[in-house]
Design a protein that fits this description.
The complex is a heterodimer of chains A (464) and B (481).
Chain A lengths: L1 H15 L4 H13 L4 E17 L2 E19 L2 E7 L4 H17 L33 H18 L5 E18 L4 E18 L4 E3 L2 E5 L8 H13 L10 E7 L1 H14 L2 H5 L20 E3 L22 E5 L2 E2 L6 H7 L22 E3 L6 H6 L3 E9 L9 E12 L2 E14 H6 L1 E4 L9 E2 L3 E9 L2
Parallel strand pairs in A: 8-13, 12-17
Antiparallel strand pairs in A: 1-2, 1-4, 2-3, 4-5, 5-6, 5-7, 8-18, 9-10, 9-12, 10-11, 13-14, 14-15, 15-18, 16-18
Chain B lengths: L1 H7 L2 H4 L5 H11 L6 E17 L2 E19 L2 E7 L4 H12 L16 E2 L17 H18 L3 E19 L3 E20 L2 E11 L5 H4 L2 H16 L2 E2 L2 E8 L6 H8 L4 H5 L20 E4 L20 E6 L2 E2 L6 H7 L7 E2 L8 E2 L3 E4 L6 H6 L3 E13 L5 E13 L2 E7 L2 E5 H4 L3 E4 L4 E2 L5 E4 L2 E4 L1 E4 L2 E9 L4
Parallel strand pairs in B: 4-6, 8-18, 9-16, 15-24
Antiparallel strand pairs in B: 1-2, 1-5, 2-3, 5-6, 6-7, 9-25, 10-11, 10-15, 11-12, 13-14, 16-17, 17-18, 17-19, 19-25, 20-25, 21-24, 22-23
The chains are: A alpha+beta (464), B alpha+beta (481).
């Protein structure tokens, strides 16, 4: 057993120590020599591990080292992108040639290019983003975390007799960026996640739900027991769910579903959508778009944030951006391209992947917590819906039309009364934002985009 | 050109040192610690994407996706590892990592068998693959769509046209001695238009494709999709808000077959059923739909987006009857579920790429035609919804609740199609909805070829289809009461 563990850890350590800055820099130089007017290289690389335990037995074990390099080449304002996982010198020489040829054939696009030099003026902060604790665990220890987590769900209640499984995963991603303007930087970020997804059955119904904990640092995860028990609590409260008659009612989003709603807003303030005016928030900068209770921040500097980073996918040093302050839209999330196109200052929000076209988007994006507890919010609602799950693709960020499948708990007289499912909630994001009537004090980091409990004054609930 | 394609098939041998001897060695290393079964999936995939926006070719991207995924199965356990490389030296550590799952499993590894090539279909003998064309003819397809959409109406303010094309070389071999190779072209052409009027914006999206080459555009010219996308965006500008509440729903032919994909398709994938996670678990032989309904999954339709000569585990794809006159007949299997349940594989083992473990997935899923005419079906509804196009859908496998969002729908009033409506989601229960199918049209259509299905974080290309169908009652999630 011991010797096998060495097999596992050998290659993992070797890769995380790799420094690709020289490779990235030399590729941008190659591109210039071959006739490019500018070029940039983005490399993502690192080890991944995941395991799933189901009904006490290990079901899956996946281990790999992945890597991807993206070269973006400019010929004036024409550009092209090539990505590959083949880092051999011969192959990369061919990539430079092919990309340049493709760029020459592309259309003139004023606004395209590497970011201008002054954006790099402030220094990327020194951030601690890579925590070794998870990578030091043996495979057996990682499996044990998942097993313990599932067991906590299964032992919680006799109605929980089956499970989709519980899983543990961890990864380290090394990000390297270089451009022909002389910028060259790299950082490493770790991440780990533990979840449980139990089923509950009461003879009539079968329900599933989940809970998870995720952090850069293993030592900051919730315990397997806490995760397992919370997952069990969430699935049990779904048993006995029924539909309700169609009505108009106040709707409370729990932190998970409020986070999903905030993701829709993040999409609508992304420079990539705004360049095309493909957003209901286009041309609204400086105006009141939400209730005064609502403030939203993008904070790539958040200590321990899952999307924290010293610089974005264009190497631009990170900074915090207030997107909505007291309901007023103050800023979009922009990369250098969308900023030029919109005539605004970039915000360091390039989320481009090595193989993808330029894309602006959030880092750690959250809605600032209010002062009231979730229980207090629920107690203010006479008849309404507490939403715990959303399904479907019924959100249109161009028009703001919103109609999603939902499950949750019906509120009667300020108390959670009975579970509901098979319903939709509908409205328009414009109205939903302005009718936020309460913001909870319960913001916790469940992902990259997080929100506390939210009360929206009025939505149409469609049911039986 | 066929010779050209055949030659491309040899990429693994020509460009990489993938010999039978090396594959056998990898399988032996994978099974060195025990295990019942191992397989290797090699992929070399080139992708091109051209995006035309703001009346210029704004983005041109190319990528090469190459790697090997190695799997070891021991009982119900799966060990998996991949390398972003086709070099044997990098695949060997992956084989060792995958094999660690078998530690303590106690089973002796079976000796790898002598290899036999799997007989496959020839469903996409593409004469003129897009990958073989220069940029100019492809850009002129994009220009034609852009011009047509902009010319449709002055309210069309933004047009984005995308042509994406991939060519995937696949080699799958397993410890049972089977080896299969395939070359899989896949093309997508998509037009999205934004129309604006009086401060309001709406989007229309249309497109199509399949495992096709340049000849595809003779039957589906760019202008066809462009006109339709612009028309849809304009229609939504003038649409009323959708109604809310339960009502009869008529689903148009083609892409509305996404109903089947969400409502029953996922629930009939064998992994969910073997683990008793699905609302359909244990219901083989039972009634799950009205006797008007027969649903098949067919990976063997020539040129379709969801079709494959072999699935991603090297098994030939097939036509599988899932529901016959309302009775549940079969689940869709991959190798693992078939082994564990003693069922024959159905050629539904699919994966997004070498970086993923295969799972039971749909190919092209559709309902067989009935006898009613579309007019007859619409005439039978006094007040209801006629939904002809959808965005996406999603299902909760366990409780069976599914939702899908209409992107083009109309009211039916007094047996006639009247005003367009927007923002309608439809929600229902998978095991229940097909029992409420009261009329099935004689007009089966398959979708245009844009479908992508996500499961457990893996996206695969799929097709759906359906004739016009009447569901006696479905909850419509609009805002108008």
């Amino acid at each position: 057993m011991t010797s096998d563990r060495r097999e596992e850890q050998g290659p993992r350590e070797a890769v995380t120590c790799g420094d690709r800055r020289e490779l990235a820099r030399s590729l941008t130089e190659d591109a210039l020599r071959s006739g490019a007017s500018s070029a940039e290289v983005l490399i993502h690389e690192g080890p991944d591990f995941s395991t799933v335990v189901r009904m006490g037995t290990v079901e899956k074990l996946v281990q790999s080292n992945s890597r991807k390099l993206g070269l973006r080449v400019f010929h004036g304002t024409r550009s092209a992108i090539f990505s590959t996982s083949d880092f051999s010198p011969a192959s990369l020489r061919q990539v430079v040639r092919d990309t340049l040829e493709l760029a020459r054939a592309a259309g003139e696009d004023p606004g395209s290019g590497i970011p201008s030099g002054e954006l790099y003026a402030h220094v990327a902060p020194d951030m601690r983003l890579c925590f070794p604790a998870a990578s030091l665990l043996s495979i057996e220890q990682k499996m044990a975390l998942a097993r313990e987590c599932e067991e906590a769900s299964l032992r919680h209640d006799p109605r929980i007799r089956n499970s989709e499984g519980a899983g543990f995963s961890d990864s380290i991603t090394s990000v390297t960026y270089a451009n022909s303007g002389g910028v060259c930087a790299r950082y490493e970020r770790s991440a780990c996640t533990l979840y449980s997804s139990p089923l509950a059955e009461d003879g009539v119904q079968k329900q599933r739900d989940y809970w998870l904990t995720t952090h850069l640092d293993l030592t900051r995860l919730q315990s397997p027991r806490e995760v397992g028990v919370e997952a069990a609590r969430r699935v049990l409260r779904r048993l006995g769910a029924k539909s309700i008659p169609t009505c108009t009612a106040p709707v409370i989003f729990d932190p998970l579903t409020a986070g999903a709603l905030l993701k829709n807003i993040a999409d609508a303030v992304s420079g990539t959508a705004l360049v095309r005016k493909a957003s209901f928030l286009a041309d609204r900068l400086g105006s009141q778009v939400a209730s005064p209770l609502v403030s939203m921040l993008d904070d790539p500097l958040l200590p321990g944030g899952l999307a924290s980073r010293p610089f974005d996918s264009e190497g631009v040093p990170s900074r915090t951006t207030t997107v909505v302050r007291d309901g007023r839209l103050e800023s979009y999330l922009l990369d250098s391209y969308s900023a030029r196109k919109l005539g605004l200052a970039p915000t360091g929000n390039s989320n481009r992947l090595p193989h993808g076209a330029p894309a602006a988007g959030p880092s750690n994006f959250y809605l600032k917590p209010g002062t009231v507890s979730p229980d207090e919010i629920i107690s203010t609602v006479k008849q309404g819906l507490y939403v715990t799950d959303l399904i479907g693709f019924g959100v249109n960020i161009v028009s703001g039309n919103y109609s999603q499948g939902a499950a949750g708990i019906w509120i009667d007289g300020g108390c959670l009364a009975f579970p509901v499912e098979g319903i939709t909630i509908a409205g328009n994001l414009k109205d939903m934002l302005t009718s936020v009537e309460a913001v909870g004090n319960d913001l916790s980091i469940l992902g990259e985009i997080c929100a506390p409990t939210l009360l929206i004054g009025r939505m149409v609930v469609s049911g039986s | 050109m066929m010779d050209g394609l055949k030659k491309l098939m040899d990429v693994f041998v020509d460009r990489f040192d993938v010999t039978q001897r090396n594959l056998d060695r990898l399988l032996s290393v994978a099974l060195a610690k025990g295990g019942d079964y191992a397989d290797i999936y090699l992929e070399y995939c080139t992708r091109d994407m051209l995006a035309f926006e703001g009346q210029v070719l704004k983005s041109a991207t190319k990528s090469i996706l190459q790697g090997a995924g190695i799997r070891v199965v021991a009982g119900g356990k799966t060990g998996y590892a991949y390398a972003d490389s086709l070099d044997v030296a990098e695949m060997l550590p992956a084989a060792r990592l995958a094999g660690m799952i078998a530690l303590g499993a106690g089973s002796a590894a079976p000796a790898p068998q002598s290899s036999s090539t799997t007989t496959t279909h020839d469903l996409y003998p593409v004469a003129r693959p897009l990958a073989a064309f220069e940029l100019a003819p492809k850009v002129s397809l994009l220009e034609e769509a852009d011009r047509t959409a902009r010319g449709f109406d002055a309210c069309v303010v933004e047009v984005r046209v995308v042509l994406a094309n991939e060519l995937k070389h696949v080699l799958v071999c397993n410890s049972g001695g089977a080896i299969a190779r395939d070359l899989q072209p896949l093309t997508v052409f998509q037009v999205s238009c934004i129309a604006a009027k009086n401060g309001e914006r709406q989007v229309g999206i249309k497109g199509g494709g399949g495992r096709v080459g340049m000849d595809y555009f003779a039957s589906r010219p760019p202008a066809f999709f462009a006109r339709n996308a612009a028309r849809q965006a304009m229609l939504l500008l003038d649409a009323e808000d959708a109604p809310a509440g339960p009502m009869p729903v008529v689903l148009g032919p083609g892409w509305p077959g996404i109903l089947l994909h969400e409502a029953v398709g996922h629930g009939l994938e064998a992994d969910f059923n073997r683990k008793n996670l699905s609302a359909f678990s244990g219901r083989i032989g039972g009634r799950v739909a009205s006797d008007l309904c027969s649903v098949v999954d067919d990976g063997t339709l020539p040129g379709r987006r969801g079709s494959l000569n072999v699935d991603d585990e090297g098994n030939a794809t097939a036509r599988t009857v899932l529901i016959e006159n309302g009775i549940l007949r079969r689940y869709m299997q991959d190798v693992l579920s078939a082994r564990l349940t003693g069922s024959p594989p159905t050629g539904n083992g699919r994966r997004e790429s070498y970086a993923f473990i295969p799972m039971p997935r749909m190919t092209n899923t559709f309902m067989l035609p009935g006898e009613s005419s579309r007019e007859e079906i619409i005439r039978s509804v006094d007040r209801g919804l006629y939904a002809v196009d959808f965005g996406g859908g999603q299902v909760d496998i366990t409780n069976g609740k599914f939702v899908f969002s209409a992107s083009e729908a109309y009211l039916i009033e007094g047996g006639r199609v009247t005003a367009p409506v927007r923002g309608a989601s439809l929600i229902g229960s998978g095991p229940d909805v097909l029992t409420r199918v009261t009329m099935v049209g004689n007009d089966l259509e398959l979708d245009e070829g844009l479908g992508t299905c996500s499961k457990d974080g893996q996206a695969v290309a799929v097709g759906v289809g359906m004739p016009t169908v009447k569901v006696s009652e479905l909850t419509v999630g609009g805002t108008r009461r």
